[in-house]
Every structure is written in C-alpha cells, then in structure tokens.
Predict the structure.
Amino acid sequence: MSTHSSEVSSSFDCPEDIHGEKRVQRVAGRGAQVGGGITVSRILPSSHRRMVGAWCFLDHAGPAVFTSGSGLRVGPHPHIGLQTFTWMIQGEVLHRDSLGHVQVVKPGQVNLMTAGRGISHTEESLPGEDKLHAVQLWIALPSKDAACEPAFDHHPDLPRWREGECDFTLLAGTYAQHQAPSKMYSPMVGMDLSSSQAGEVTLNLNPEFEYGFLVVQGTLGIQSEQFEANELAYVGRGLTQLSLSLSAGSRIIVLGGEPYTEELVLWWNFVGENKDVIGQAQRDWRAAHERFGVVHGYDGEPLIAPDLPWESQ
Ligand code: MN
C-alpha cells in the first residue's frame, strides 16, 4: 500500500484565525491504485495539504471484500527517509522485509517499519483472506535521522481506553497519561476513535501541534462543519481543546504533530531532504544496491523505479 509517483515539494498556507474562530480546512481523498488492483483513497499528500506534522502520506484502503486468493499484492520495493505505519482495521496482511522480518498484521495491531538509509519489503493479503480495511501512513524522518539504521517493529498491544461512548486507541506518541510503544523521531500523536453511539467527545490538544482528523467511517462534525468518509479535517496550531461530534458507528483517525519545517521531497517510495538524495536512491534500487537488501519468500517481481521527472530522458 505505498507506491505513488507524484512529487510534492511546494509549501502550503496554514488556515488563519477568523474572528477568534479556528478555520477548519477540508481535504478530500482521491482514488489511487495499489498492488493487486486494490483502490484506495489517498488523502495525503494533496494539492491543498501536504503534511500534518511529520505525517506525510495517508492512504485509506477499503473496507473492501475481494475473492479469496486475490487482494493486496505489493512486490518488493524500497523506501528511504521515512517510517511506514500500517494500522489494520479488518483483514490481515503479511509483511516481509530485507531485514528478514516476516510478520502478519491483524486488526488492532500496528506494523511500523523505519526505512532510514534503506530497506525493501513486500505486502500481501494471505491466502484465504477476503477482506481489507486499513490505514497506511508514512512519517517523514527529521534530516538528522533520515539515514538511520533500518528497523521493523510489530505492536500487537496498544493503549486503549473509553471516554463516554468513544473507544480510544493510541497509535503513536502520547495522550493524557497514555504512551504508545511505537518509536517516533519527532513530537507527534496518532489515535483511533471509534464510537458505537452518536455523541460528542472533547479532545485535549497540544497547542504546538497541528491536527488532522480523517473520517474512516460515519461522519464527523467540527465547529458546525460536517465531514464524510475519506475527508480529512485539518486545524492549525494553537488549540488546547476541540469538540468532535461523532455519528453512531463512526471511526476517526487523529493525526497531530509539530509542523514539519525542513525541506522535504517525496517521490515514488522515497522521502528525502533534496532531489540528489532521491536520485541516488532511484539509481541504487535500479542497480540492486545492497543498501536495500533482498526480500526472501515473496513470489513475484520487484517493482521498477520510474524515471526521475526532473531529469531529461
Ligand atoms: Mn511500502
């Protein structure tokens, strides 16, 4: 759940205060194809919102039902400069990587892969699996950590609690007295909110963070604005509290973090501080350089890196 070929390196305006009221920006997902013919909704990056904190890529896959034996199939492909963060809601996906990890991620669990200077991996639905509902995110590493040693972590147990009718799962960072086990490289937070009943929940926000609220299911109301599935509501820094109106059966992903201020280029499966770093990774992947290792056990061909759009053919 990861490949794309858009280059995004311009900056975007933050919403301003209007008469003391925070303006909420609406970011709509758009359809994108990933391996195996699965269509996802790609919310970040978009032309109006590149990132939320260090969260720089956001795909919502499903909920989808497919014929058993088909489903997700993403062959060996490389990453640099980022962490991939997979949050399963329904179905199971098998991850294999060039460090030798073979790990199924199940509903309620997180797979976190730190690419650093280079890693490669595959993702596939298991034989017999016929469902997929997941969120896949990328987190940009700060430049000082961008070339760190690659790593993979599986997090089957995350902090969970309930406020009123709303079930909270902390995916990343800290919230109130809770701390997620996932290793992050910049101040940020990720949460899953799931509500069986319609109601209101008030979040305590970090005023240093900007936030995005992705509607996965149901509807979300913020300050008299209504958001539907595959829409992200963005609010800028400066808030300490925010009330969310959740419909019955809704699920919301909360992303937050300090605005990312360093230069950042996203291209294909690479994140880097400039085009040189990206270009080197593209050439290294094409040359099967050892920095990306080898994924064993996947029945299929590696993905081919496209031409660099900023180099003449
Ligand atoms: Mn990937």
